[in-house]
Amino acid sequence: MRSRTVLCIRKIGPSEEETLDNTSCLTHRPIEKEPCNNQSCPPQWVTLDWSECTPKCGPGFKHRIVLCKSSNLLKTFPAVQCQEESKPPVRIRCSLGRCPPPRWVTGDWGQCSAQCGLGQHMRTVQCLSYTGQASSECPETLRPPSMQQCESKCDSTPISNTEECKDVNKVAYCPLVLKFKFCSRAYFRQMCCKTCQGH
C-alpha cells in the first residue's frame, strides 16, 4: 500500500491558505491509500534447522533442508525457480570430539575340551572400533587370553586296591596331571594311577 495526505484548504490570499474541517469541502474527497506493487515477489530460499552432527565423534557433517518458497511462505516451488547462486549451504563440517580408541572384546568361554579331568576351553577375542567394526589398532600387550585351563568333574568311581593300576580311559590329560604335580591329590592319583606311579 501507498498513502498520501488529503486536506480541505481554502485560499485566503495570493500565497496564503487555511486548513478547514473535512466537512467544509463539498467536492468528492480523494483517496488517501491505494495498493501498489501488485506483481508477485520472486520466490526465495527458506532453510530448516540443522541436523545433529554425524557420526557421533570425529569429523563429520550436519545437514539441513533448503526449500524454494513463495514470498508469503505458503507455496513451495521447484528449486530451479530460485536463484542457484544465492542458495544457502545444505551441508557443513562438524566434530563432536575425538572417537574412543578400539578395544579388545571377549566372548563367553566355550566348553571344556576334557569330559573328565583337566582340559582347555576357548573364547573369541576381537579388536573392535567404537562402531563395532574389526580393527587392528588394539595394543597386543593388553590382549586378553583366548584359551585357559579348565577341569571337568569325573563320574567314574575310584579304583579299588584290588584292581590293576591303570589310567581311567575317560581322562585325556593324565600327562597334565603329572606336569602340574596333581598326583599328590588322592582323586587324581586314583584316576591316573599308572601315570602317577613313582611320583
UniProtKB/TrEMBL annotation:
Domain PLAC residue range list: 161-199
GO cellular component, one term: extracellular matrix
Keyword Electron transport recorded: no
Family annotation (InterPro entries): ADAMTS_ADAMTS-like, PLAC, TSP1_rpt, TSP1_rpt_sf
Tagged with keyword Signal: yes
Keywords, in A-Z order: Repeat, Secreted, Signal
Cellular compartment(s): Secreted
Coiled-coil ranges (or none): none
GO terms under biological process: extracellular matrix organization; proteolysis
GO molecular function, one term: metalloendopeptidase activity
Pfam families the UniProt entry points to: PLAC, TSP1_ADAMTS
Protein name, per record: PLAC domain-containing protein
